[in-house]
Amino acid sequence: MDVEKTNPVIVVKNLTARFGDNVVFEDVSFEVCKGEILVIVGASGCGKSTLLKIMIGLNKPFSGQILYQGMDITSVEEKELNLYRQNIGVLFQSGALFSSMTIKENIELPLQEYTDLDPVMIDTIIKMKLGMVNLAGYENYSPAELSGGMKKRAGIARAMALDPQVLFFDELSAGLDPVTAAELDDLIIKTNEALGTTMVIVTHELESIYKIAHRVLMLDKEAKGIVAEGKPQDLKKNATDPRVTSFFLRQKPVDPGEKRFYVK
Prior knowledge:
With 264 residues, the chain is an alpha/beta fold. It has a single domain (4-249), classed as Rossmann fold (3-Layer(aba) Sandwich). Helix content is 36%, strand content 26%. It has nine helices and ten strands. The strands form two sheets. The chain has a six-stranded mixed sheet, with helices on both faces. Strands 2-1-4-5 form a four-stranded antiparallel sheet, covered by helices on one side. Strand 1 and strand 2 (22-34) form a beta hairpin. The longest helix has 18 residues, at 178-195. The termini are far apart.
């Protein structure tokens, strides 16, 4: 899919995150193009989830900017930040469904908070969103009655309730079997193609990365920033940085000082 590189939805400028003296990453800059699926990868501790939380306005950076349609979400008042949140949808690794509510009640929450729609219209939207994620008829089920994959799909339905411009997913396939994970990948692709929704996804699942990503950003803990950017297949075939090849080929980086023995 071709994305509109001249019309970024989100612009990240010189972003630095730190906790006390611990610098997670620094001076990170990139753009999220309209309609693309951007996947953020990297080893544990490199700052993937921290970056995602800053991008959705949950955490503040130490310095830098995140511009959404020209508005810097890192410095605006809560009122403007809420306007931004109405244009995005979020699904964290756990799914974050409220266990005491039905699936319908979970999806109702953003519609009740951010719209003045009447109950009939809200019910129509809920049925439509559940149909989009293959959960038609599950409105009155509780999260405990759903499988892991179904919970993730219900979470996607809630994330899409307000027809957001951008969807953010954190480790969407974590804890799922390969078949269920592949079904979620298909759902992501179908949603992106049908609605043109921009997506920012954190994952470490190589099969998903190759299948869904239009572009990949790789963070590195030691570099404290981006060490690679591009299409996943290009990074797999052409990267020369051992950190990048190690990730995409699932190989341990070779220590130049390590003695290696071969059996003829």
